[in-house]
Here is the input.
Amino acid sequence: MGGRWCPITNGFRLPLERHLIVPFFSAIPARTDNIFIMRGHLTTKMIRVCRDLGVPEPEFREQDEDFMVTFRRSSVNVLLEQPELLNWRQKQAIEYLKAHGSITTLQYVNLVRCHERTARKDLGELVQLNVVVKQGLGKLTRYVIHAGFRHFPGG
Here is the structure.
């Protein structure tokens, strides 16, 4: 199997199938903005980096005498493997978001020339896929792209 897009390593492709489980007390050769995960510390920093990048937070657990960290695949990987999950309007919105950072429902309607109900449905699906975060309420609602999708390939 080929590698996958990995926003934590700034685009380096890792051969992850479902998820990665590593012993926490060993070094992980993954760069996270000059942070190397070593010797049983940085759990808070790992959570913060994952949140900032829009990828699932790691799961921590003890197993026998080991402390394990599980990294789940990001939704970027899912969308790369199953591009049919996005329609052409949503793909166009991702390109817009990569350039502008956020979008409103009205901007989406004007961008893809669709009905407002369709725009809300499409944007809601992008929220569920963890591509964007919904901020605000009512007419002040904005959809902000997750950091992991800023360099999402394709379009």
In short: The chain has five helices and six strands.
